[in-house]
Design goal:
- There is one protein chain.
- This protein is α/β, with parallel strands linked by helices and 294 residues long.
- The chain has a single domain, classed as Alpha-Beta Barrel (TIM Barrel), CATH 3.20.20.70.
- Helices cover 41% and strands 17% of the residues.
- The protein is built from eleven helices and ten strands.
- α1 runs parallel beside α2.
- The protein is globular and about 55 Å long.
- The relative contact order is 0.11.
């Protein structure tokens, strides 16, 4: 029997497909975002580090050549630093080839940690934080109940970067609906320029049944963007970006058009390609709604 025990559905970034996934926490400590319904059936709790140590020790017998580990669920970074250090020490002691541990975090989690704490985590191979900022618009963040402001996101991200931990930042295209699309795009670009992440991942909004945003759509207070409007919003955002050395990916299944680039090198090529797609409006180039839900 495989030694890792999972509770409910487990989500991980596309780039962690080959990683060993360990549930350090169950659910999401915030769990109030209006667009998110993936943790609604999982009351948040932290797992006992002693229990995790046992799983790690057993996993090392099944997967001794593990090089990468991803700590789930929604924001395992919320755990106290001493608990995270204990988990990281167990991983380093059990997997001699371990190169990197990655983790999901909320902006609030970074603000709860001092630079010295983050530096200690980095020394034990915490090598990437996936940070969901979703939008750079203060109005959009309030509307979706993200629980953090753009200045707080900038401060939290700065702490991680000062500690030497790279950031993979995620934003959600279409989160402002039709009325706020351009502001969402432009303000998100401004926020990203301040954060200057090493990686940028773009998701396109899929409204999930049972969420607050789904109720708003049914009531008529939120109008989602269509495929071409979503691509136009991506173009607006990319136009405003000025990042140092950022790997950009829009390869999540939610995106109508998969995109990838190193923005410092490929930005203009990417914008030209988007212009051509928007001009042609060839639906055969886009993922179907069925494909986006997979």
């Amino acid at each position: 029997m495989f030694p890792i025990r999972y509770e409910g559905d487990v989500y991980r970034p596309p780039s962690e497909a080959g990683s060993l996934i360990l549930q350090a926490t169950i659910g999401c400590s915030h769990n109030r975002c209006s667009f998110c319904g993936i943790y609604n059936r999982k009351p948040f709790r932290e797992r006992d580090p002693a229990e995790l140590e046992q799983e790690i020790a057993l996993a090392s017998r099944f997967l001794p050549h593990t090089r990468r580990v991803f700590l789930a669920d929604g924001n395992a970074l919320t755990m106290a630093t001493d608990k995270l250090l204990r988990i990281l020490q167990a991983l380093e002691g059990s997997f001699p080839l371990l190169e990197r541990v990655a983790i999901y975090g909320n902006p609030q989690d970074l603000l709860q940690k001092e630079v010295e704490e983050l530096s200690a985590l980095r020394r034990l191979k915490l090598g990437l934080i996936y940070l969901g900022v979703e939008s750079g618009s203060a109005a959009v963040l309030r509307a979706v109940k993200k629980g953090a402001t753009p200045p707080e996101m900038i401060e939290g991200a700065a702490r991680a970067k000062q500690a030497g931990i790279p950031l993979s930042v995620t934003v959600i295209n279409g989160l402002a609906g039709v009325d706020g699309s351009e502001e969402h795009a432009r303000e998100t670009a401004r926020l990203l320029n301040e954060i200057d992440p090493e990686y940028l991942g773009l998701l396109s909004l899929i409204i999930l049944p049972g969420t607050a945003l789904h109720r708003q759509e049914r009531e008529g207070s939120f109008t989602p963007l269509g495929p071409w409007e979503l691509l136009r919003e991506i173009k607006w955002m990319l136009e405003g970006l000025s990042l140092t050395d950022c790997v950009f990916r829009a390869n999540h299944a939610s995106n109508y058009l998969p995109l990838k680039a190193v923005l410092s090198r490929d930005k203009e090529v990417l914008l030209t390609a988007l212009d051509r797609v928007l001009e042609s409006k060839a639906t055969g180039m886009l993922r179907s709604e069925h494909q986006r839900m997979l």
